[in-house]
Amino acid sequence: MDQHKRDVLNRLATIEGHLKSVRRMVEDDRYCVDILRQTYAVERALQKAEAAILQNHLRTCVPAAVRDGREQEITDELFELFELSRK
Questions:
Q1: Phi/psi class of residue 69: alpha, beta or left (left: φ > 0; alpha: ψ in -120 to 50)?
Q2: The three-state (H, E, C) secondary structure of the chain, written as one string
Q3: Looking at the predicted structure, is the pLDDT value of residue 1 above 80?
Q4: CATH number for the domain including 15?
Q5: pTM greater than the 0.90 cutoff
Q6: Which residue segment(s) compose the domain that 61 sits in?
Q7: How many CA atoms within 13 Å lie on the side-chain side of 31?
Q8: Phi-psi bin for 29: left (phi > 0), alpha (psi -120 to 50), beta?
Q9: pLDDT by residue (tens digit) across 20-76?
Q10: How far, in Å, CA of 42 to CA of 7, rounded?
Q11: Domain count, the chain
Q12: Residues 36, 9, 6, 46, CA torsion sign
């Protein structure tokens, strides 16, 4: 397994742990602001994971698609991702 994949999987495992913690906090009727702080941390961690995945995609999959003559397909796909990120 390459280092990038290990890094992303580690980030996702950390996010899973944080989500379980948030769930326990809700179940334990913890203070709302404390719960929100944790959910914001989860969001930031997820954004970092997304950025790492996108960076890898731009470095590996996009050049391969261009070499294979699939420029329009990969451009459309990236635009779709851009649109999804803005919703």
A1: left
A2: CCHHHHHHHHHHHHHHHHHHHHHHHHHCCCCHHHHHHHHHHHHHHHHHHHHHHHHHHHHHHHHHHHHCCCHHHHHHHHHHHHHHHCC
A3: no
A4: 1.20.58.1000
A5: no
A6: 3-85
A7: 3
A8: left
A9: 999 999 999 999 999 999 999 999 999 999 999 999 999 999 999 999 999 999 999
A10: 16
A11: 1
A12: negative
CA distances (Å), origin 1, targets 6, 9, 20, 41: 7, 11, 27, 27
Residue 50 CA to residue 35 CA, distance in Å, equals 23
Residue 46: the pLDDT is: 94
Whether 15 and 45 have beta carbons less than 8 Å apart is answered as yes
Separation CA 49–CA 63 (nearest Å): 21
Say which residue the tokens 């203070």 belong to. 31
Q: First CA to last CA across the chain, in angstroms? A: 33
